[in-house]
Fold this sequence. Notes:
Elements: E1 11-15, H1 44-56, E2 61-65, H2 75-83, E3 90-95, H3 100-109, E4 114-118, H4 124-131, H5 136-149, E5 154-160, H6 167-179, E6 182-187, E7 212-215, E8 220-222, E9 231-232, H7 233-236, H8 238-247, H9 261-264
Helix pairs in contact: 2-3, 3-5
The structure holds S-adenosylmethionine (SAM) and iron/sulfur cluster.
Amino acid sequence: MFDQFNRRINYLRISVTDRCNLRCTYCMPEEGIVQIPHSQILTFEEIVEITTIAVQHGFEKVRITGGEPLVRKGIVDLIRMLNAIEGITDLGLTTNGTLLKQFAQPLYDAGLKRINVSLDTLNPQKYKAITRVGVLSDVLDGLAEAKRVGFNPIKLNCVVEKNSNEPDARDVKAFAQANGYFPRFIPKMNLDEGIFGVVEGGEGGNCSTCNRLRLTADGILKPCLFSDIGYNVRELGIAKAIEMAIKNKPACGIVNRTNEFYNIGG
Length: 266
Ligand code: SAM
Ligand code: SF4
């Protein structure tokens, strides 16, 4: 489907949980978050139904995100269910990578072939400071396992203050080059203040070509990362929510005071 600015909307990003095993300083408060009650989180059956109807509306590209998607119980089953939907040409997942050593093989076997792993630094102390609780070697082991089982491409999401010339970003770039990973540099954003940046090496951040809708873990379809607008699939029905989200997708976002990265999925 095309929106009113002639953008073809064909990319659905699905947040499967607002929970996370890290506490990145730019994403979550140290004490954690007020979590969506389990009873409100979309079931796998609901996610599959929403995705199927989205495909009928012309969606082809699906990305699973969170919170941390690998902490959602049964995530491998969900990937298998989504992979069975005819018409999805590109199924991907964004993860912090800390559980990837354990999950890479089962995810690959379930049909996932593309993965984005967040990695802001190669310095273990800095990694700990950024994520508050994370251990860098877990991510590096997870990446090595993802490569071993055959994921392709493996992209690295690196959050930067301004651009990829910063020392940590340069290290990530060299590490990616040496290992056959593809780095993308994401300027640190603030949804609440409308501080917004264009992703270097990726597609995000260019409003004139934005082809995305986002689904929150509790079933709100959001047409724009930087807008409070959202349509509840349970209240409106799936097709109506999709149609309204596309129809009302803004030309450009301004601020989002309703969501944070951990519940809209980045
Ligand atoms: N937990 C997973 C992860 O970290 O990859 C998936 C969800 S996370 C919200 C998705 C992406 O958003 C990550 O690459 C993360 O670095 C990015 N992100 C989170 N907060 C951000 C912020 N304030 N500015 C820019 N990117 C941010
Ligand atoms: Fe968790 Fe990802 Fe947010 Fe970090 S960026 S706190 S890993 S959801």
